[in-house]
Structure formats: structure tokens, C-alpha cells
Write the C-alpha cells for this entry.
Amino acid sequence: MNSSRVLKEALVHGGMSRRDVNRWLGATGLALASMPAWGRGARAAGQKPMILEWSGYDIPELHPEYLAKHGESPDFSFFASQDEAFNKVRAGFNADLVHPCASQSWKWYDAGILKPIDTGRLSHWGNVFPTLQTMPGVRSPNDEVIMVPFDLGNSSFCYRTDLAGIDPNNESWTAILDPQYAGKLSVDQTEDNFRGVALAIGIKDVIRMTPDDLQQVKGALVKQKELVRFYWESVTDLAQAFRTGEIVISTCWNETSATLMREGIPVKMAHPKEGIITWVCGLVHLGAGSGDETLIYDFIDAFLDPNVGKFLINDYGYGHSNQESFKLVPQERLAELGFTGVDELMANSIMSGAGQDFDSQMTIITEVEAGV
């Protein structure tokens, strides 16, 4: 079984998040086996596209329109983090499309390595959620489309409905700072918990925080640390802690509640009254690529196919940028994943787009961990 198929099985059945990929690849030794060498020379113009991707996103089910039209897939190379992908391109790797997230696409734009995308060449663009079409990160500071949104998900907190005592009609981010959950709380050490804590203490704009906001969050994180049983890194470990009742509340992404609900474990993903955070990732077009332009646009368009979205939602547990995709998925499956009322969800989400100071947030997280 090849690496992407192994990863697909892990994503679907084992609760592995895309954010677990780096550790998984390193443990299996598949990262090097699945990546073409960095040092390959420039490709001849007009070749089939090279896609720099997350492992697991190269499977035929995610571009059937392209396969039907051209008979073979593009070439793929893989990365395990956005920084790795960025550094790989800056080091000279010759790719045509890359799959970063909207929160970091301006970094690519500021580096001068992106081409604007002509949405008039995309037959499915009109069905992309309007909120996504206009968000920072999908659009450049000059209002050009620089990323075609593809997959999306939520950052919130999950809780055991039988053990946590939370009113499902009054869910609040303040729960992740509540002393009653001392020793029963787990959180991640990423911007997701950082922004959740910010919302809990009343900061309104958690995408563009001021220096004073950042220091207020640091103080709250220090207090939260006293409540935390463990900081989770793998959603597999998180799910197991929920199963056993070791924890009753944690920051989470959609796949945790979906996995546990399928098993009959009463874990709910909250929709906090302060707002749920939605992340969005997609394809950017590199200016130095040498793939055939028609093939590149055919691949982008194939990613937006609503049937691809149906597969992405059902099998990977992530949302899709084409709003028609959600009409193809049973309501009970959407409910499992927290995607019911998706129009309302999109309208009320805090969109994790460009303009965030990740470096400052991660510095503070590291300082809190070290007791500085």
C-alpha cells in the first residue's frame, strides 16, 4: 500500500489529522520515499503540472475530472508543514501549484513567487462560498485572487456531554479557563488554543491582536497551564483520552468529535457564543513553474468539483469550498462533523485568513511552556 493510501486509512479510520502527518511520516520513513529529490533540474516548459501537496491529497478521488480529461494524474511531491513547503520552493524546487492555508498565503505573495489566478477559467468558481471568495489570503492586499480555496475546518473545543456539565445552549470559550476542569482539561500548543483563550478573556479581534492583547493572553495561558492535564499533539492521543474519561474537555478540530461520535462516545464539538474559528486552505499558482497552463487550470478546477467535495467531507471529514458539495452529503454525516447549517456557520465564523502574527503567538506559547 503506498504512503498516500496508508495516510487516507489513518485519516478516515484512525482519527489522524493532517497536522499529525509530520510525525507519522518521520516514524515510517515514508517522507523521503514519497518525495522527488529537491535537486532535480528545471522541467521543460509545457510539461504536466507538478503539485506540491500534503500527503493523502494526491489520490484519484480528489481530481477525477482531470483524470477523465487527460488520462493521467499530474506529478506530485509532498510536504509535512507549510514552512517546509515554503522553504522548499524558495530553495528552487520547481512546482506549479502548492496547497498552503489562507492564513499564510500572504507570506508567499510578499515573497513575489505567486501568479494571480484567473477565476474566469474555472467552471466551478461561481459555486465557491462568497465568504471564501473575498477573504484575506484568498485575495491579496491588492485584491487579486491568489489562492483557490479548497478544504476547510473548524477550531473549537470539544467536551464529554455526560461528564463536563456544559449547557449545549450556552457554550463559551471560557470553559477552557474554568478551574472546575483542573486535571481534566487538555489543549494544543498552537494558535488555536491561543485564539480560544483570547476570545475567552474578551478580546474581539483575535486575528489581528495588539501587543497589549498578546500579553493579556499570555497571562491567561499561564493560569490555564495550572489546569491542563496534558498538552496534546496527536488527535489520536486526544481521542483516546476522551474515550477513557481522562479528560472531559479540550480544544479540538472537527475530526475528533466525528470519530468519537461514530464510536458512540458522547463528545460534542462546541459552537461557542464568542465564535467558532474556521481555517481554509487551497491552491496557489507559482510564477516560476513550467507546467502547461491549461493543465494547471484543469487541475485547479477539478479540485473544486462538488463530487470531490462530497468525497472530502465523507472520507476525510473536512469541509469543501464548493457549497454544492454539502448538498450531496447525508444530513446525519454533516451533523457528525459539525457542518449542519453550513451557510450560517460560514457567516458566523471567525475566518482564519491572512494578517495574523503567528510568530509572536508561538513565542509566547514557548515562553509559557518554559515558565518564562
User: Anything to note?
Assistant: Residues 1-16, 21-43 have pLDDT under 50 and may be disordered. Residues 153-277+355-370 form a domain with the D-Maltodextrin-Binding Protein; domain 2 fold (CATH 3.40.190.10). The chain has two domains: 3-152+279-338, 153-277+355-370.
